[in-house]
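Slide 14.
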Amino acid sequence: MPANYNAGVFESCLGDDDLPMGVYGTSTWYQGVNPTPSAHPAASSSSCHTVPTVSVSPAKKRRDGMLTVHAGEPTAAP
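Slide 15: predicted structure.
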């Protein structure tokens, strides 16, 4: 998950696909197995914007600016 991982900063970013954590080629590393392999380098990211953090207050509804579209009545086939 590409992002800026500074403490107290929560962001959503566009980014390159990254390798899954713990998967190295054809093998998978598990905690407690020695030696511990090096971490994968972080994928590049861009267009990051700050998002609110998790809180105990209810989530706000995203109704503002949304258009409701109703499907028309079905018509009989000829």
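Speaker note: The two ends are 51 Å apart (CA to CA).
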